[in-house]
From TrEMBL:
It comes from the Bacteria. InterPro entries: Acyl_CoA_acyltransferase, FemAB-like. It comes from Rubrivivax gelatinosus (Rhodocyclus gelatinosus). Gene3D superfamilies: 3.40.630.30. This is GNAT family N-acetyltransferase. Pfam families: FemAB_like. PANTHER family: ACYL-COA.
Amino acid sequence: MSRGLTGHDYHIGVETDPRRLDARAWNALLDSQPAPTPFLRLEYLAALHASASAVPDTGWGAQFLTVHRGAELVAAAPLYVKSHSYGEYVFDWAWADAYRRHGLAYYPKLLGAVPFTPVPGTRLLACDDAGRDLLVAAMRQLALDAGLSSAHVLFVDDTDRAAFERAGWMLRENLQFHWTQDRERPVADFDELLARLQREKRKKIQQERRRVAELGVEFTAHEGEAIDAGLWDFFHRCYTLTYAAHHSTPYLTRDFFARMQSTMAQNWLLFVGRREGRPVAASLIAIDRERGSAWGRYWGCVEPLPFVHFEACYYQPLAWCLREGFLRFEGGAQGEHKMARGLLPVRTSSAHWLRDERFAGAVAEFLAREGEGVEAWADELRERSPFKRDAATG
């Protein structure tokens, strides 16, 4: 379909296979956004599709929205038709159950998100607010035309959030835990970070690290092309063991990580823990050196080793970020325990549109109550900062 916008003709299309899109044009559009992340690069999204990790057979039907002016890609958004709510990290199972109890179908629904990746960032790739508004309107129309119950866009940045707010979508708030460098009083290294923590928090971390050292576990860091196929194999074994420990099935195939090795090696950092020369644990971190940002993603251990999780997922990455001059480390979804390790609460937002006005009203009331609870939780957490009062970071 096509429509006019500020005097120009735009063609709006839907692509079911991200591999058919122009990666250079998509990534150039991404790089111009307020909050780009590696997870929205077309190579990442295409690898999810090509590796059969996020495809219709697993409940993720790609419906990538594109806006062209002539041959130029001027706006885009990764969308999926979902037949479930797994792999999203913004939980709407109760909404689906309410639909079911009233004899209505909640699935399929339209989702704007990076599969299995609860990382805040740009979701509406557009050059200006007019383009973002067009994408939001097109999402709603796509859901209507396909007879879908609803549309949801997860972990949006503030610019996207404003666009959804202008369109009257419902907004949902939650919290994650991130470390951010103090720009006024930068932390020089991990020892200084510890020194800024309250005494009991600092002692607990020191005790945990001592226990890992007493186990004889030592870590090495491997970045980019230094992560060879053997290390990826070991990491994937750890990754699958983590899911097995929770009686679950991994979302990502080994082929997905092979594609990361070949197309986005520069965006990965692997910590490997060894004991008596044997690899026993691994944690995978995504990195963006240009913007000084890092994201904790996956971890695993081949045998039960106390406190190794904290070392692999928090202490090693934080120490590395400080050595390398990074400005931000995001610890992933949920996890109030991250606060005791120097990560502070940060608001996250998602946007929601429901076609059924009765359910939309009920959900709006629920979100208002939930939002009050999240704000109260955030206030409580700020009062319980792990940092000394004169040494708060972030």
